[in-house]
């Protein structure tokens, strides 16, 4: 397994033109919303994590920026744009790094995404992922926030052209409308293939992702 992971990541680094863009996000409202919704989700058997919200926000932002929901076909010299949203979630397991995929994440409700995350996480932990659970991804999210660290520069899940790094939420003082208030702040980092996605594209994508995460009420307008 380690040999296969090494071969895959080395091929990604040799082939794609990696670069990383970093953004700071104030998720105070999202933290409060999750806190209110957690008991409702638990009553239905779901564990509502921040990743569930980030998956949904990512799908909304990808709709606006299809360049990031693409794959590079080096054999044919083509960029393949995907009209579906299969979000891979990098998982740290005893067997090594795996990336199970939430298929059709844009069409799933927040609760359904939470259930699927639980299923895939348990299957990854026990080594019982089916082959289809690991195939067909169009965009990947890697979340090391629960472990620690400030930020990272993830390696692309080649041939995908973008991978989002999610980092820990930290409470710190911030000025809001001239007042110094405690806020929940998180860093997001996104690594991209510069052959496909320019820096301006990355900045615009992150601006929209940040918008959805900072004001989760916008989800409702988008048919969350």
Task: Please give a structural write-up.
The longest helix is centred in the middle third of the chain and has 17 residues, at 110-126. Helices cover 37% and strands 28% of the residues. Helix 3 crosses helix 5 (199-214). With 224 residues, the chain is of the alpha+beta class. The protein has a 6-stranded mixed β-sheet with strand order 1-10-9-8-4-7, with helices on one face. A two-stranded antiparallel sheet has the order 2-3. A two-stranded antiparallel ribbon has the order 5-6. The radius of gyration is 17 Å and the shape is globular. The chain starts with a helix and ends with a helix.
Please describe the structure with a list of short key phrases separated by commas or semicolons.
alpha+beta, six-stranded mixed β-sheet, two-stranded antiparallel ribbon, 10 strands
Please describe the topology of this protein.
Elements: H1 2-15, E1 18-26, H2 28-43, H3 50-64, E2 70-73, E3 78-81, E4 87-89, E5 91-93, E6 96-98, E7 101-102, H4 110-126, E8 139-143, E9 162-176, E10 179-193, H5 199-214, H6 218-221
Parallel strand pairs: 4-8, 8-9
Antiparallel strand pairs: 1-10, 2-3, 4-7, 5-6, 9-10
Distance between the termini: 38 Å
The number of helical elements comes to 6
Query: What percent of residues adopt helix (DSSP H or I)?
Result: 25-40%
Order of helices and strands: HEHHEEEEEEHEEEHH
Mean pLDDT: 93
Strand order of the largest sheet: 1-10-9-8-4-7
* General shape: globular
**What is the gyration radius calculated from CA atoms?**
17 Å
What structural category arises from helix and sheet content?
Answer: alpha+beta
Strand content: 25-35%
Q: Report the strand count.
A: 10
């Amino acid at each position: 397994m380690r040999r296969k992971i090494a071969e895959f990541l080395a091929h990604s680094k040799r082939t794609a033109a990696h670069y990383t863009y970093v953004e700071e996000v104030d998720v105070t409202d999202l933290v409060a919303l999750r806190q209110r919704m957690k008991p409702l989700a638990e009553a239905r058997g779901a564990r509502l994590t921040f990743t569930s919200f980030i998956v949904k926000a990512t799908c909304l932002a990808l709709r606006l920026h299809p360049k990031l929901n693409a794959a590079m076909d080096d054999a044919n010299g083509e960029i393949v744009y995907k009209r579906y949203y299969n979000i891979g979630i990098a998982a740290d397991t005893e067997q090594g790094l795996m990336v199970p995929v939430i298929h059709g994440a844009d069409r799933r409700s927040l609760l359904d995404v939470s259930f699927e995350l639980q299923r895939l996480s348990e299957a990854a932990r026990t080594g019982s992922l089916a082959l289809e659970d690991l195939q067909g991804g169009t965009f990947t999210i890697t979340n090391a926030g629960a472990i620690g660290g400030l930020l990272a520069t993830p390696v692309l899940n080649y041939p995908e052209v973008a991978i989002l790094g999610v980092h820990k939420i930290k409470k710190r003082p911030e000025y809001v409308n001239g007042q110094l208030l405690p806020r929940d702040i998180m860093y997001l980092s996104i690594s991209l293939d510069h052959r496909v996605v320019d820096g301006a594209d990355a900045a615009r994508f992150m601006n929209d992702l940040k918008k959805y995460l900072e004001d989760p009420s916008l989800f409702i307008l988008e048919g969350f």
